Here is the input.
Amino acid sequence: MISRKWIDDLVEPRKEGALSKAYDCMMIVAIIMGTVPLLFREQIKLFWYFDIISGTIYLVDYILRWLTCDFHSDKSKKKAFLLYPFTPMAILDLLSILPTFNLLAPAYKLTKAVRLLKIVRFTRIVYYIGPLEIFVSVIKKQWKLLMSVMLVAFFVILITAIVIFQSEHEIDPVTGEYIFKNFYDAFYWATVTLTTVGYGDLCPVSNLGKSLSIISSLFGIATIALPSSIITAGYMQELNRRVKAKKGESEADNENQTE
Here is the structure.
């Protein structure tokens, strides 16, 4: 007889067992099928079937997870069932299912952006691929430090944008307008320069502006390096922790078998 615990082991990502691994593969295929139509402007009949199949699989997965949500909650069984639809992951799942109903009922049109909700399905692939899941785990653990770096970068960009906007008064000979027509242009330029992307669509022509570009680019190298080093160090720590934990579980299982 199929139990709720068996269903939970089946739907949980990266569990041991042939059926669980097959379920993970099915979910990955469903995610890809639901995303492929977004890569094309012309929607052929095959894509309609892709949407229906992937949406149906997502709906079944949503129901199964709802039925077993109490296994992953510290609340009572009744509260866990009532609160599950309002959890972040459940909301994302529901948003990813919404485009399927839009396909089944063409009259049900909210906006053209409803199709883009299919992208939400792709976020689920993180839970079925180990390295991506570790990366997300690192982001969650280091988010305060990363936010601090992002805040510093934002203020550097803001100050740079204000300075360039107030100091660069050159006129573009082609358009006859200021190179930086408004503050948003200056903020955009400062962001592109600080991140060392350098599209080149906006650039200062005065000596002061060029000097500021040099300083901003140098700051950008350090600013980009900080989050990268934080994530890399955190990733290695999390990976080592999981390897040790798995090794400890294996040793414990061997001891139990010996006894």
